[in-house]
C-alpha cells in the first residue's frame, strides 16, 4: 500500500526524531569519552580544601580571578585571592616566605625575585607535580610553553647560588612582557613628532613636545628606588649600549655597571630622563606610567607592551590611540634590545595544601584559561604557543583599535631576552642601581656614582 | 619603797621587751623574706610579657652578629662585622644624619606650633573651642594613610598643594620628588600629624597653672608676654619636655610616613636608619645587616631618650 504523504511525513518525522535522539546520545557519549580522555586526573581529589593565592594588583591577576568560579566548580577547592599594590606585594612576599608562613599557598613571581627565593628553599620545586600523572593532566602540555620561558624558570640551586639552564622547574609562566616604546599617536601626530629611536632623539622630541604643550609629560618611565624601575626601560636600553649587569672576569663574576659603556649609557639616559620624565619620576611606578598614557597626560612610555594594549581595548578613553615601537637603542648601536619579564605562579614551600595548590597552578596556566584571558583583553602576552596560533586570539589582537600591536610584538620578540645575569642577590644589586639612578637624575656625577655603585655591589657579593 | 627591786623589775622588763622586740623583728624579717606568692602571681603576666619583648630584642641583636641572608642556607656567627662594614660606608653616616635631622627638626617645630595652639586653646576664644576636637583628626589617622594622602597632594604635577600655591602666584614646587626638598616635605607631614599631640599635653599643663599665680604677676605689673615668658613657660616646661621625649622616640624610629612617601629617596636623601634597615633586610634580603642597622637605631633612640629625660628632671627640679 502506497504510503500517503501524511504517513510519509509522519514516518519521516519519527525517523528524524529518532535520529535526533540517537545522534544526541551518540554526541553525548562521544563528548563524555573525550571529556574522560581530557579529564584523565581526578580534579576533585582535594575537594573541600581552601587555598590562598597572592599576587600583584594587575590585569593578569584579574584575568585569572574572573575565571575562578569555574575552577572552584571543577575541583571543589576554594581559592582566596590576596592582591596587593606592586611595591607592597614584593615586600610582603619576602616576609611571608622568609618567615615560612603557610598562609599563602600559591604566589605570583617573576624569574628575578625567584632567583633570590629558591636558594633559601622558600619555593617548592614543581617537577614532581608536573611529572605525576595523577596530579597533572596529559592535556596540560607543558611543552606548549615557549621554550625560552620554560628554560628561564628552570635552574639548579648550588649552595648560595643558582645555575641556570638545567635543574628543577621553580615556577610556571602564565603571562610575559617584553619592553617596548608605546606612544599616543594622536599627540605625536598633532605636534608633528617622529617616533624616536635613540635616547638623544628622544631628548630632542621631548624638548619639542614641551615647548609645544608644557602640560604634557613627554615620556613615562618608572623611577622608584626599587629593582622594578630597572628591569623595564633602563636595562633594555643599557643592553643596546653594551652594558651588562655582571660579566665574568678571570673566572669570577664581576659587576659591569662601571664600564665605559655603562658611563656612556647613563649620560644619555639621565639626560633623557631630565628632559622627558615627569617631575614625580622618583615616585613613579607602573601605575603612574599607565595612568599617564591612558589619560593623555603622557605622550610616550617605555615599559611592558601590554600596558599599551590594555588601554587600546574598545571602550577605554585611549582606545585606538596608542601605537607601539621597539624600545630605544644606542645611537651607534645596530639593534634595539628588549628585556622580558615572566609573570609566573610558584608554590610556597611552607604550604600545607600543596596538592590543591598544584591543581590551581595547573588550571590557571592551562590552555583554556590562557586563551580566555587573552581574548578578554587582559592576559595579553600568553606564554603558550597554542594561544599565539589560535585564530580567535589573533583575530582579536589584530583588530584596528590595537593598531600595530601584533606586528611590533613579532619584531620585538625576535630580540627579546632576559637581560639580567641569573644569580641570587639580584634584588640587592638592582635596588642599589635604582637608588644610584635617582642620585644621577638629581644631579650627582655619573661616573663617580657608578664607581660607588660598583663598589657597593662588589662588597655585597 | 624597795627601789632596788623596782630597778631589777625594770631591767628585767626592759630585757623582756628587748627580747620581744628582737623576736618581732625576726618575725617581720622572716615575713619580709618569705615569698609573697599571690603578689608574684599577680605580676607574672607582666614579667612574662616583658621577657617576651626582651627575648625578641635580644634575638634581633643576635641576628645582627650573623651573616643571615635569604639565599644562605647556613647561618654563620660573624661577630661585629656587620657593624664594621656599615660604619665604613658613607651611606650609613648619611642615614644617621638624616635620622637626626628629621627627628630634631620635627620635634622642635612641633613643640613650637604645639605651644602656640595650646595658648590659643587656653585663651578660650570661640575659634579655639571649635578647633579643639578637630585638631585631633591627624592623630587618629593611620600613618600609612597619612603618607599616601600627602604623596598624592605633593605630586608636583597633579597635586593640590602646587595648585594652591599657583593661586597665589608661586611656581611649581618639587616637594618629595627632589632631593633638596624631600626632607623638608617629610618634616612638614610629621608636623601636621603630631603637632596636636604637643598641643594637647601643653594645654593640659596650662590648665594646671593656678590663676592666683597669674593674678599675682599681674598685680606686680607683669604684662601678657612677660607673664607667659617668666611665669607660664617655666611652669609648663616639664610638660613640653615630656611630650618631646615621646615624640623624639617616635621620630627617631619613624618609618611609616617616610617609607609611604619617599621610600628613603630621592637617592638617599631621606633614607633614615629605620627605612635603610627595612630595605636592607626585606628588599635586599640581608637580614643580618638589617638587624645591625636596627640595633644602631635603637642605641641612638636610647641615648636621645636618656638626654631628654635628664633635661626633664633638671627642669622639673628648678620649677619645683
Short structural description:
Helices cover 47% and strands 17% of the residues of chain A. Chain A is α/β, with parallel strands linked by helices and 461 residues long.
Describe this structure in words.
The complex is a heterodimer of chains A (461) and B (320). By secondary structure, chain A is of the alpha/beta class. Chain A has helices spanning 5-38, 59-66, 68-75, 86-98, 111-117, 127-130, 147-152, 185-190, 199-212, 230-240, 260-276, 286-295, 306-312, 354-364, 367-375, 385-388, 391-397, 405-413, 426-441, 446-460; strands spanning 50-56, 78-84, 106-109, 154-158, 161-164, 168-169, 172-184, 217-220, 246-249, 252-255, 298-304, 322-325, 338-347, 416-417. Chain A starts with a helix and ends with a helix. Chain B has 320 residues and is mainly α. The A-B interface holds A 87, 90-91, 94-95, 98, 116-117, 119-122, 159-161, 217, 224-226, 278-283, 297, 424-425, 427-428, 431, 435, 438-439, 441-444, 452, 456, 459-460 and B 69-73, 85, 89-91, 151, 155-158, 172, 174, 176-179, 261-269, 279, 282-287. Chain A: It is found in: Periplasm. Chain A: Pfam families: SBP_bac_1. Chain A: Belongs to the bacterial solute-binding protein 1 family.
The poorly predicted ranges of chain B are none
Number of helices of chain A: 20
Please provide the count of β strands of chain B.
0
Q: DSSP strand (E) fraction of chain B?
A: under 5%
Structural class of chain B: mainly alpha
Oligomer: heterodimer
Quickly give the CATH architecture of the largest domain in chain B.
Answer: Orthogonal Bundle
CA-based gyration radius of chain A: 26 Å
Number of helices of chain B: 14
Instruction: Tally the structural domains of chain A.
Output: 2
Helix percent of chain B reads: over 70%
CATH superfamily of the largest domain in chain B: MetI-like
What is the radius of gyration of chain B?
29 Å
Structural class of chain A: alpha/beta
Distance between the termini of chain B: 61 Å
Task: Give the N-to-C terminal Cα separation of chain A.
Answer: 100 Å
Q: Which stretches of chain A of 5+ consecutive residues score pLDDT under 50?
A: 1-37
CATH-derived architecture of the largest domain in chain A? 3-Layer(aba) Sandwich
| Total domain modules of chain B | 2
The description of the largest β-sheet of chain B is: none
Amino acid at each position: 500500500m502506497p504510503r500517503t504523504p501524511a504517513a510519509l511525513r509522519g514516518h519521516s518525522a519519527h525517523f528524524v526524531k529518532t535520529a535526533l535522539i540517537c545522534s544526541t546520545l551518540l554526541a553525548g557519549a562521544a563528548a563524555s569519552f573525550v571529556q574522560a580522555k581530557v579529564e584523565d586526573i581526578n580534579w576533585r581529589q582535594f575537594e573541600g580544601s581552601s587555598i590562598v593565592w597572592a599576587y600583584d594588583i594587575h590585569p593578569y591577576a584579574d584575568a585569572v580571578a574572573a575565571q575562578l568560579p569555574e575552577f572552584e566548580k571543577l575541583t571543589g577547592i576554594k581559592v582566596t585571592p590576596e592582591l596587593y599594590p606592586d611595591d607592597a606585594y614584593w615586600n610582603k612576599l619576602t616576609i611571608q616566605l622568609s618567615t615560612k608562613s603557610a598562609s599563602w599557598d600559591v604566589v605570583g613571581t617573576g624569574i628575578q625575585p625567584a632567583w633570590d627565593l629558591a636558594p633559601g628553599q622558600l619555593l617548592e620545586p614543581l617537577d614532581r607535580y608536573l611529572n605525576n600523572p595523577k596530579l597533572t593532566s596529559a592535556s596540560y602540555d607543558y611543552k606548549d610553553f615557549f621554550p625560552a620561558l620554560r628554560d628561564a624558570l628552570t635552574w639548579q640551586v648550588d649552595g648560595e647560588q643558582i645555575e641556570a639552564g638545567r635543574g628543577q622547574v621553580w615556577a610556571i609562566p602564565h603571562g610575559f612582557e617584553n619592553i617596548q616604546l608605546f606612544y599616543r599617536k594622536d599627540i605625536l601626530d598633532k605636534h608633528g613628532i617622529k617616533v624616536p629611536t635613540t635616547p638623544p632623539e628622544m631628548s630632542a622630541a621631548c624638548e619639542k613636545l614641551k615647548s609645544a604643550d608644557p602640560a604634557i609629560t613627554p615620556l613615562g618611565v618608572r623611577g622608584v628606588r626599587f629593582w622594578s624601575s630597572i628591569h623595564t626601560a633602563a636595562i633594555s636600553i643599557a643592553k643596546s649600549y653594551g652594558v651588562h649587569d655582571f660579566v665574568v672576569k678571570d673566572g669570577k663574576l664581576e659587576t659591569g655597571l662601571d664600564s665605559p659603556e655603562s658611563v656612556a649609557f647613563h649620560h644619555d639616559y639621565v639626560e633623557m630622563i631630565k628632559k622627558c620624565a615627569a617631575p614625580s619620576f622618583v615616585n613613579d611606578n607602573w601605575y603612574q606610567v599607565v595612568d599617564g598614557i591612558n589619560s593623555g597626560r603622557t605622550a610616550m612610555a617605555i615599559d611592558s607592551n601590554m600596558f599599551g594594549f590594555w588601554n587600546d581595548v574598545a571602550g577605554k578613553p585611549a582606545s585606538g590611540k596608542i601605537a607601539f615601537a621597539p624600545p630605544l637603542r644606542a645611537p651607534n648601536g645596530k639593534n634595539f634590545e628588549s628585556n622580558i619579564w615572566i609573570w609566573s605562579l610558584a608554590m610556597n614551600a611552607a604550604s600545607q595544601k600543596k596538592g590543591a595548590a598544584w591543581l590551581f597552578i595547573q588550571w590557571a596556566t592551562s590552555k583554556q584559561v590562557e586563551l580566555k584571558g587573552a581574548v578578554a583583553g587582559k592576559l595579553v602576552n600568553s606564554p603558550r604557543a597554542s594561544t599565539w596560533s589560535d585564530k580567535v586570539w589573533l583575530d582579536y589582537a589584530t583588530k584596528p583599535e590595537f593598531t600595530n600591536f601584533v606586528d611590533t610584538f613579532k619584531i620585538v620578540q625576535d630580540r627579546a631576552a632576559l637581560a639580567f645575569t641569573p644569580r641570587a642577590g639580584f634584588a640587592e644589586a638592582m635596588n642599589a642601581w635604582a637608588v644610584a639612578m635617582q642620585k644621577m637624575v638629581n644631579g650627582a656625577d655619573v661616573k663617580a656614582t657608578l664607581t660607588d655603585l660598583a663598589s657597593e655591589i662588589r662588597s655585597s657579593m | 619603797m624597795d627601789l632596788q627591786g623596782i630597778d631589777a623589775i625594770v631591767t628585767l622588763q626592759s630585757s623582756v621587751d628587748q627580747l620581744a622586740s628582737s623576736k618581732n623583728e625576726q618575725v617581720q624579717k622572716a615575713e619580709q623574706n618569705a615569698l609573697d606568692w599571690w603578689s608574684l602571681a599577680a605580676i607574672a603576666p607582666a614579667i612574662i610579657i616583658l621577657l617576651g619583648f626582651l627575648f625578641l630584642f635580644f634575638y634581633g641583636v643576635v641576628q645582627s652578629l650573623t651573616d643571615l641572608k635569604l639565599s644562605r642556607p647556613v647561618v654563620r656567627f660573624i661577630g661585629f662585622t656587620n657593624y664594621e662594614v656599615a660604619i665604613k660606608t658613607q651611606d650609613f653616616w648619611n642615614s644617621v644624619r638624616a635620622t637626626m635631622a628629621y627627628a630634631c627638626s620635627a620635634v622642635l617645630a612641633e613643640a613650637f606650633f604645639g605651644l602656640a595652639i595650646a595658648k590659643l586653646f587656653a585663651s578660650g576664644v570661640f575659634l579655639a573651642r571649635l578647633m579643639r576636637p578637630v585638631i585631633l583628626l591627624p592623630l587618629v589617622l593611620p600613618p600609612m594613610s597619612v603618607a599616601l594622602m600627602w604623596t598624592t597632594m605633593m605630586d608636583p604635577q597633579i597635586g593640590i598643594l602646587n595648585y594652591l600655591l599657583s593661586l597665589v602666584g608661586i611656581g611649581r614646587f618639587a616637594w618629595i620628588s627632589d632631593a633638596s626638598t624631600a626632607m623638608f616635605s617629610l618634616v612638614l607631614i610629621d608636623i601636621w600629624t603630631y603637632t596636636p599631640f604637643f598641643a594637647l599635653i601643653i594645654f593640659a599643663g596650662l590648665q594646671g597653672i593656678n590663676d592666683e599665680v597669674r593674678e599675682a604677676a599681674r598685680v606686680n605689673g607683669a604684662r601678657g608676654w612677660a607673664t607667659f615668658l617668666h611665669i607660664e613657660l617655666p611652669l609648663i616646661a616639664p610638660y613640653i619636655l615630656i611630650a618631646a621625649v615621646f615624640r623624639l622616640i617616635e621620630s627617631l624610629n619613624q618609618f611609616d610616613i617616610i617609607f609611604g612617601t619617599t621610600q628613603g629617596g630621592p637617592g638617599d636623601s631621606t633614607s633614615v636608619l629605620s627605612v635603610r634597615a627595612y630595605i636592607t633586610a626585606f628588599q635586599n634580603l640581608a637580614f643580618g645587616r638589617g638587624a645591625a642597622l636596627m640595633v644602631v637605631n635603637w642605641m641612638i633612640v636610647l641615648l636621645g631618650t636618656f638626654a631628654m629625660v635628664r633635661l626633664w628632671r633638671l627642669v622639673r627640679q628648678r620649677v619645683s
